[in-house]
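Limitations
The structure tokens in this dataset are predictions for the assembled complex, not deposited experimental models. Users should treat interface geometry with appropriate caution, especially where small molecules or nucleic acid strands are included. An illustrative entry is reproduced here so readers can see what is and is not provided.
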Amino acid sequence: MTWTIEGSTGAWEIVVGLEVHAQVISKAKLFSGASTLFGGEPNSQVSLVDAGFPGMLPVINHECVAQAVRTGLGLKAQINLMSRFDRKNYFYADLPTGYQISQFVHPIVGEGKIEIELADGTTREIGITRLHLEQDAGKLMHDQDPTRSFVDLNRAGVALMEIVSEPDIRSPEEAGAYLRKLRQILRYLGTCDGNMEEGSMRADVNVSVRKTGEAFRTRCEIKNVNSIRFVTQVIPIEAMRQIEIWESGGEVDQETRLFDPGKGETRSLRSKEDAHDYRYFPDPDLLPLVIERSWVDELAAALPELPDEKRARFQTEYGITAYDAGVLVAEQATADFYEAVAKGRDGRSAAAWMTGDFFAALNRMSRGIEESPVSADALGGMLDMIADGTINGKIAKEVLETMFETGESASDVVERKGLRQVTDTGAIETAADEIIAKHADKVAEYKSGKDKLFGFFVGQVMKATAGKANPAMVNEILKARLDG
Amino acid sequence: MLTDLTITTAIDGLRRRDFSASELVSAHIGAAEALNPRLNAYITITSESAGAAARSADEALAKGDAPLLTGIPLGIKDLFCTAGIRTTAASRILSDFVPPYESTVTQKLLHAGGVFLGKTNLDEFAMGSGNLTSFFGTVESPWHRTGDATPLVPGGSSGGSAAAVAAHIAMGATGTDTGGSIRQPAAYCGIVGLKPTYGRCSRWGTIGFASSLDQAGPMTRSVEDAAIMLGAMAGFDPRDSTSSEQPVPDFRAAVNRSVKGLRVGIPKEYRSEGLSEEMQAVWEKGIQWLKDAGCEVSDVSLPHTEYGLATYYIIAPAECSSNLARYDGVRFGLRVPGDSLDEMYEKTRHDGFGEEVRRRILMGTYVLSAGYYDAYYLKAQKIRTLICRDFINAFEEVDVLLTPTAPTTAFGINEKPDDPVQMYLNDIFTVPASMAGVPAMSVPAALNAEGLPLGLQLIGRHFDEETLIAAGSVLEKAAGFTARPDIHAGVAA
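Predicted assembly:
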């Protein structure tokens, strides 16, 4: 179903394209040997090249090129064996050379695609226009001094991948799904950490509106939106602003805007007339970037399994639902953990325990799966004890909880607390007989047709055995006595 | 006199202990200090560090394993960054800039034992053909018309280096050539100037003017000296993506290489109207000298020559407009405060750059602007490809080209044309080789009737500087150019 906004003249469709700036994971910057670590003292990670000193020249960092190619492969995109770096010229204090080295005309990666899943279970394909490499700028600090601004060049020259989508996105939900999926792919590939709070992933959101079936209308670009939540917030806000302009007989100007999440509005940064003339031209300090097909093939062969493939494999290999598989592949670490648990065990049971009590416990502790006090081995050990009948599912919940608290193995918890399941027929029969004798009235009711009371008897027997009785045996023994 | 020696003879003299490096260097420093107030060839003379370097050179020579250029006094164009020594590009904007790093070319010269006498004057940011645009003042050529004291330009942009070498206040000097900045001043000053193949010498640490054209090279008083210096300056540098991995040959060995059977091309398009009769006559002489040495001379065509200058004056300013954006007053160099960032930029760059540099930045900004890019920059790049192809085609028929270096001899400092385009015409014969990236060398050939030097230019295939050196040696011997400027070391200024 098409997502629309109802205006006074009828329904409006939104058209959204995203430009994502993803900071490349690399030890050194795109064109200098300086470190890329986040959070260093201001200007502690700056080379003479980054600071634009006279006579300094850029030299391409091949690891950044490899990362861009890996990302292109992960986006099922065309890899361009010849690409070129251009200079984007403008003056600003955070841009030491007065130009940003980018790839304007010939990007390293061409058209690709991302498949997104929506809440209603449907999927959609969002086209990728291109991916190119470029340098990040430095940072201005306006709060250090009453009259002056300070410049921190630690980030200047760090490699970014600009990933441009086609204007295929039609709802805020799709925009969010696109960003989450892109981030997931980048993280799987290890090419960007996707951390929007630290600014290592930022989005420029292009928004326009139209009546269904129309050609595109004028778009506005909302710069530097720094969380997925803000992206989904700003789209309807900006769309509504444009609808109001169109419906009042006005004309939307093509311009760059900023999102003010506090006020819930966008405001103009610069209009088309004030747009910079960037005077792009090929950077004469750099030769065209030529890469070999064989190298691309090597990178492709070494690529990790990506989320879509992994999810499909989990479904077939472990027999789990698409939904569970989707949850389990969301993060590489979770998927790895699941596989370690599921290998050689019942995959469905492993999935149920992980998506249920295990995640719940981690959430309560506000911990990521990497810091889980219960290792994949330990969780697997617990599943083994269920499988071989040492404990039942109910006791297992208690065991897992204790494992989270103490870090013990399941078998240690079971031994220490004496939680071993009762599979001794005699003991269960004794308990069953006692319960039946004690509740003659209920037995009579049951026999007169109140079938539901069977559960009551099971519960009572379980209670009498402190939950340790094997539930299947309890059922069998009670059935023989009550129905016989 | 020690200042009479060439690099070649001084290398031998030092090893024979005829004199020490300290004596050699102090003779040059003394002469430089005496003549510089008049010539203004040096922006900075580094007497102290030169003296210390000379003493180290003597120690190295005493040990017996000193590299080739040990103790040789050199001038360094003030476009090469020198660690701890002010490097200005002859601009106000860098007038107090002391780089904490050494350019690759000067590092290589230091490694080869060279002693730096100081930093030589140039046109501001190497933009000019007369050394008239330096913030540190005009350089006066050591040459004068016979019986005429009118001060003349040394050519440019490496005019300080040319004047210093011609006046014997440097034994050799580095230059940089973007459209003729080594060859044209070499011709005006009666010395040898070699612009190597683009990529032969690293550009790292040399202040950029037009990245796709800039190339460092030697300026000396003999072809052999140029070969020696180039050998020390050249070589692959991983810090410059455009530097070539081509192995560096033994350039000096090419000095005595026979040119018998060498095919010499005379580009007919260079017989242009602006060429003086004297220059035409010297050119014919040069052709004869090469024939006499056994070369086969024939006419060749470089059909796109006429577009060379116009194309150059689009591409070079375009690159310069971007390369010079870093001089913004934020991190180093001059800062003129303003009430806003934009105002600081405007004031700093207005006050920091001279008129010619500002003109070229504006031209370059214009040709790269939206709406003009295709008509100017893109078209110029296409023509540049055609010019390059002209040379490649010509070099299928011949091995080397012979042309004049400049249309005329040096002009008077106060005779400079008001029209900047007139000034740009000085580069008409040197620009095409720069556009194509091929090596070219100017060799002094004769004096004109007024007693001023005229140079001949040899242009070779990419990475074939050796043929230039072989043919250049032949011209040098045949010309027997021994004239000295009226101002030189040992003569009162």
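Some entries come with short summary sentences. For this one: Chain A touches chain B through 31 residues (CB under 8 Å).
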